[in-house]
Design brief:
With about 140 residues, the protein is an all-alpha fold. It is built from six helices and no strands. The protein starts with a helix and ends with a helix.
Length: about 140
């Protein structure tokens, strides 16, 4: 196998693995953070009604709802800044493109320098698109 062939395959495979891990990370953040924020803001919005319940009355002696409101605001800011759902979709799409390019690189004749350079060019284009679309 030629050095160029190995380099193209390694580059595409490494990017695929990084983007696969990042897609999992953003999926986890999105799936956990959003429901927690919805629950927290709902509890804060219903503080007067919930304060009548025995358990909430015992923890809401002036500190529970304000702290929860601040945490919900911070979480909402983080969620709006990270945009995990959008990044998750972008990483998934780009991961699939890079996987296809890795397969193409492995199936390209190692002695066909022109074809390998075209695959490498497509890998570099996919990397540039990924940075432009998914890295803020």
């Amino acid at each position: 196998m030629s050095i160029l062939s190995e380099e193209v395959i390694r580059t595409a495979t490494d990017e695929y693995e990084k983007w696969k891990g990042s897609a999992r990370l953003y999926a986890t953040i999105s799936r956990i953070l959003r429901p927690l924020l919805i629950a927290a803001t709902s509890v804060v919005a219903a503080d007067k009604s919930l304060g009548q319940w025995k358990w909430f009355a015992s923890v809401s002696d002036g500190w529970f709802f304000p702290i929860l409101a601040v945490l919900a605001a911070i979480g909402t800011g983080i969620e709006a800044w990270l945009k995990p759902a959008e990044k998750w979709k972008g990483f998934l799409a780009d991961r699939d493109v890079m996987d296809g390019l890795a397969i193409l690189a492995r199936s390209t004749d190692p002695n066909d320098t022109g074809a390998l350079l075209k695959v490498l060019e497509r890998v570099k284009e996919a990397q540039a698109k990924h940075v432009k679309d998914n890295v803020y």
